[in-house]
Amino acid sequence: MKSSSSPRTPRPAFRCSACGQETAKWHGRCPECRTWGSLDEGPAPGSSVRRLSAGPVAHPARRIREVAADVVRPTASGVAEFDRVLGGGLTPGAVILLAGEPGVGKSTLLLATAKAWAERGQGFVLVVTGEESAAQVRLRAERMNALHDGIFLAAEGELDAVLGQIELVKPRLLIVDSVQTIAAATVDGTAGGVSQVRAVAAALTAEAKQRNMACVLVGHVTKDGAIAGPRVLEHLVDVVLHFEGDRHSILRTIRGVKNRYGPADEVGCFRMVPDGIAEMPDPSGLFLTRRATPVPGTCTTVTLQGRRALPVELQTLITPSGAESGRRTVSGIDSARAAMVVAILQRWSGVSLAGKEVLAATVGGWKITEPAADLALALAIHSSARDTPLPAGLVAIGEMGLAADVHPVQGVAQRLAAAARVGFEYAIVPPGAAADRPRGMRVVQAATLGEALGFAGGDPVVRWMHRGASGGASTGAKGVG
Question: Is-contact 375 396, C-beta < 8 A?
């Protein structure tokens, strides 16, 4: 006898909004990316896809040469350092996500941008605040001298009300502070939740594209520095910027993470002042220490961020440790690269750092993430361990390999020009990188760390790596100029 039981209905699957992982049952935390509250119920796996028929076309495809590009030309906001990171200015229809820690100065920067935009007569600015009252924002704008008739202010917490304000004001620039405080009535959950943030960001993005309106969304960050909310938020927007700075320092930086309209590695520099925030077109003085005589354990490198080259001083200190293995403490330097440089010094040079604490930091709190600072860090640690200062006016540029080779880096000519502009007279660079040296600067090419130490005044009897069958040591350096 045949069974008349109906086929079993497939169970729904749950998809993570952050990484896309699918699971058969719901979890409070995604088992793949470990994100809390990111699993949403979706269609059952393996379900058949309904065949769709062709529908009407709203905008027929055109040849790419016939598409007008004038509508997406960037418009300068009036804040040059902000425009530098954006790729020239605010692009009509672009959605920008500005993320940073609480109290770092995001709202202050955007008020200054709103004032500059309105003063240039580029259209109305609508500032929507969900964290503060309108009176609080007005007091800040008065302190910053940012009161202008072209700036409109609204304190709203509902998405429908925000869209109504946009329809009423018709701004050319929209600032929402912040996206985590706006809630959509049609979506379950509280403001700031994964579903809410995704829905609000999608609605504001669609509105910006439809009205050809530039939109800046302020975002919160988590304790580890990541942008709060679903990962899809960064995919929805056109530009992602990180606003960084130490509360105990006047320096503030904007770093580009994603930019569909320009370079994604630019950096803009600002300083906090009593009445708000000010631009820093040339912040080199913050990252250098002027001394009458050289000090052991210091060396200067030039870091390249986008089109900006900045000389940054590295400081190191070697002290005895009470334990068998000393600590390695860094500030402003990648800890993994610092540990690699220490290992290279211990393996290939005569420096013994066992049982000693190694401390390394950048002056001014600048964060160096590129490998071009490896050579300067190695010279600084060697100088501190030997208690011998490096020559005055020396700058070192180069990436270190595990075999103590100095590898080429990009933009050496631009880095040397920046170093010469602030008064450096000597430079150690990788091989083949000294052709475009500035006039009056002595540039030496070092293929190994041993050659760099020899030029920098290192111990001539230092034990060094064997080169060739004869076991000779390489201590010479190839000079240019």
Answer: yes
